Amino acid sequence: MTSKTSALVALALLLATPSARAEDTSDLQGSLDEPVVTTASQSAKTASTAPATTTTITAEDFVRWNITSLDQALDFLGVGIVTSNPLHQVDVGARGVMITKDQGNHFLLLVNGHVMNEPLFGSARFEKGAGIPFEMIDHIEVVIGPGSVLYGSYAMLGVINVVTKRAKDWKGVHLVGEFEPGKSWRAGAGAGALFSLFGKPAEVTFQVEGYRLFGPAFEMGEQITGIELADKQPERFSRDPSKPRGVWGGPRWGAVDKQHYVIVPATLARVLVGDFELNLLASSYKRAWPFSDTRTREMPNYNEPDNFELERSARFDLKWQKLLSPVVQIGARLYGDSFDYRRQGIDSRVGACIYPGVTTCVTNTRGYSRWGGLELQGSFDWFHDATLVSLLGVDVKRAFVKHQSDSTSDEDGRPLRSSDQVVDEADALLGAYMQHEWRPTGWFELNGGIRLDVGKSYDPVGSPRVAAVLKPWRGGALKLVYAQAFRPPSWYELRAEDSTQLPARDLQPERVRSIEASLEQKVRAQRLFFGVYRTEWRDLIEAYVLTPAEIREAAARGELDYLRAVSFRQFRNVATIENFGYDAGFDGTLFSGALRYGASLSSSFARRTDASGTRPLAVAPRAFGNARIAYAFGGYWPTLGLAGHWLASRPADRAYDGNFEPFPMAPPLFELRGTLSGKVPGVRGLTYRLSANWVSASEGPYVVGPGQSHDERQNAARQAQIVSAQLVPIDQFRTMFGLRYDFGTGEGGE
Amino acid sequence: MKPRFLLAVLVALAPGCMTLDPIVLATTDASLPMDAGGLPLADADAEVSLTACEECVFGVGDGGTGCKAQWDACQKLEVCVKTIACARAQSCLENKDFKQALDCGLPCAKAAGMTDQTSPEAIAVLDIVSCVQSTCAKPCRAGEFAGKP
Amino acid sequence: MLARRSFLLGVPSAILVGLARRTARADDVAVPPAVQAQLIGKVAAYDKEFANRAGARAQVLVVVRSGDDASTRTGAAMMKELGALSTIGGLPHDETQLTFTNAKDLATAIKKKGAAIVVLTPGHGGEIDAIRTALDGVNVLSVSTVAEWVPRGVVLGFDLVSGKPKLLVHLGQAKKQNVVFKAEVLKLMRVYE
Fold first, then answer.
1. A59 touches chain C (CB under 8 A)
2. Phi, psi of B108 (to 5 degrees)
3. In chain A, where the domains are located
4. C77: closest chain A residue by CA
5. What whole-number distance in Å separates Cα of residue A739 and Cα of residue A686?
6. What are A3-16's pLDDT values in tens digits?
């Protein structure tokens, strides 16, 4: 071959190979942008091959778009998941299903794999009250769809796993401060280090933070209330006799400035030594909200500074994992949690506090749950190349729950009645699960598993899942998933009774089953997702209000004394839900990741059926979505971020039983957030964030105040006044300024 | 604010655990003072304000004198008070003719301890029911009965 | 005053940085082998010397440590995942598994086989310094399945940051091993000198 020919051949080879086009790194960028997830199958795999629809929200996303709580992350950056804020703990829903007042017990919340839902109410928090120091979060994995196959109860709508940073990403000392003028502040300090302990590599990360919301002071609309039979006077909403009677809210009362706040101190520490990992969490969540509604019956006094809710939690989780052979890996997890709850309500209404010599009753509802357990797990990689992997596990748990409600005199503190809503139970729970993953080729994977849960209060429940993933062409992934999940009745639902609440009978676990199909397509650094689903829910548990005929029958059986109350309720399995719809999303990057963008849209058709018929779900949005874009200029230039999320109009919580005119619908909501973030020039390690947030809607889908329904039997004045529902106000505009200082990181700051 | 926040931090981080011991009062809760208006035991869930019909029955608010005289007489008799309180809870006074009201309220009367249809308590109850059907007919039979929580 | 404050802040920082330089949790394979293999297949194309080094067909050596379970498992997975790739760096390829004896023998084996890429599996943490020295002047792209070895002198590695893979590169060692990454791809990497 002549030298000329050789040169031509070499040139041809160069042009023919991909490296000639390799100046474009978008394909590589796309691979680097694909999340590696573990929650869906408890094994690390890409999101496109995980046996469920999974979204990953990263710490960098938090900074770009100024995300400071879980619910904001889900709204602005999630796919198929949405929250709704009643100025109380947020409701979280997915795929067209949102069950208000459920205390988050249809989503399983994990922190580093540790279950946060507690057994007294099944509750988990997704707003600031989650008590997770935010800068320590590395990423959040959001799995949509039933997830009980590996985790057991509560994972009906999905599983959210908050994963915190390892020391390599949290080295040094970190200080953070944020301020929203007129609204809130947050301050935190944390550190991380790598070291040796007993000759083994070790690391520690921790953060402690405090958050305080102190505004805004909402002005509530005026609601005229009626005459109290007991003293023939208009209703009273204050201990102070000079305060107006017979009216709630409005200019005569003024804005709620004492009964709207949140205080959340929290701390989290994570220690790794050799094969052991220890997680410790502690937090407190104290709050008050400006209005009473059907969920806060004991708190009707207006703008009362002594109305509040307080919960505290402390958790520990000790994990150990060991590879015994190329085939066998075993692990164990020992965990323990303590959760306690207190709600104090001040009620000066004469008819609600009719004890001689008492003008104001103080109701304290308190409860706690303490639980601990041991989980053992074995993983078998039969050919030690991830072709066939089996996972077996067993989780044994013991739980103790207590609850009671007491009424005392505000004047002298003496108890006015015996405790009611008394719960005192010890529970033993067993969960056993197995999962098989088979990947015979690089383009096909099958995942099948089942978990059996046994508890004292319910018959054994099986939660299967089968998933198939096909990668028929480059960048494409087709998934088909069938899964079931359940939620057992909480101990409060099972046992709490008082003069108006009958004990539950034969309460069965709620169940859901779901089938979904999805397509994901990656083209270089762009990713498209489209999925369709159908789910069926049954045996939904609610506080059912007995009809007069049922009351008479129950009285005849001696189950209640209807001289003692006006209405009676009982937790029952009352409803089913059917829904189907789609989730769609895209995201991508350009310019080597400097420009990032994404959007999602979800729409569903959901119907609830109970004894009164079939109707849409209240509060749950039929359609919702989000969009975001950010550009990092680099160096000391700021990163500009713009994010928005949207919800279609939706029925208010009392739309179907409040008899309001017009039919109460919350308007469509559009929320836009602009963020400027970057390094402070000249100060190494110091970064800033500036943000403005605007919401289009002024009210949300929750009826507030004593006017919870329009009753044609009311007196004329009240009828005229409460015809339409007053909906919860929304804080429409807020700004935020934050600084963060990182030092001792060994790098140039964040 | 600052001391309250620090207190919240200490509460969060304090090792103390909540303990609960149910209170059991020796005296029964069921004895209601007569001047409480016969309302049932404190029920914070209750709609404590009166409907237009009830305002007429009890002769308060916009109800004018209504059946106040009959109610004042009833209040002197514990069984009558308990019967009417129960009947109110069962919505027996609203949107019912005379027979329907009696049928609805009879279980209440029995539960309250009424045994004799000619007793002063029974007469007092019947007086109220009759008054509801006549003096308070307009507000009490204005529309369909709707058993609301 | 400013100097004293800076010093006071600097003392704990220095302690923490000093601690940070110690060994991290050993042999964490954070990024799944399937993802590592895919990234190797793509990143190799951005090594300007790869085509010259590999010739018509790239030879890949996967080094395992005898008796180390993690190494055996990762080695088998990497063999399978690399084998499933249609090309590496745009070239056809073959994979061979090699059991580690010592760093010198490893360098000899690389030269003998003409390996373009050598993949180090877990279990070699104690040998990284020797391996780095032995590979000085050897024309090969060394890849670590354990992120912590890149700062210690393996040319390329993978870490997980915020749940996403991150490329790590040791530029100083890359130069010694005739690995020259294009500027465009260096922007996507965390660089160690």
1. yes
2. -65, -45
3. 1-25
4. A385
5. 7
6. 555 545 444 444 44
